[in-house]
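Predict structure. Input: Single-stranded DNA-binding protein, 168 residues.
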Amino acid sequence: MNKVLLVGRLTRDPQAFQTASGIKYARFTVVVSRQFGEDQADFIPVVAWRQTAEFAEKYLTKGSRISVEGRFSSSTYKNAQDETVTHYEVAADRVQSLETRAQREQREQREGHVATEVKPTVTTQPTPQPTNTTHNSSVQKDEIAQTKDVPLDVPWELDHLIENLRKW
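Output follows.
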């Protein structure tokens, strides 16, 4: 069984896209603190499709505390230098905000964000086609984000997140 559950914070606002056939998707990275070890975190790339992407675009911003349920996905492609590149990400089935609107607004105010209802326009991307791979993925080379996400200034401990969830 291929099932992934993440609890963490967004490293930046989700990036919204649309395939040529009109299917919405969003890409974002979740920083997840490791339970053991000192100040170690993993930066997990996530892709969400359709209604899940619309939710992410509309309600999530950099620093949002979220949970992601999905599956681990990988794809391979040949780059311009004819090298095989493997890309890993979580394909989200469900994304959930773990903070109230008031908490989000307080966080955004502390971080200097301006809460807006208007998001950037959606970029049209080609329709994903299956790649020549044995992995469970339909991500094309040009859809794979090559930019690095900017991490949050403060690492968030998973224990801290769980403790706050229990207070709800």
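The domain at 4-159 is CATH 2.40.50.140 (OB fold (Dihydrolipoamide Acetyltransferase, E2P)).
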